[in-house]
Amino acid sequence: MHFEILVEDQSGKKALDILMPKIIGNQHTFRVIAYQGIGNLPKNLTSHTDANKRLLLDQLPKLLRGYGKTFANAPANAVVVVCDLDDKCLKTFRQQLFTILNACNPKPETLFCIAIEEGEAWLLGDIPAIKAAYPKAKAAVLNSYRNDSICGTWELLADAVCTGGSSVLKKKGWQAVGREKSVWAEKIAPQMTVDKNASPSFRYFREKVQELT
Question: What are phi and psi of 31, to 5 degrees?
Answer without folding.
Answer: -140, 130
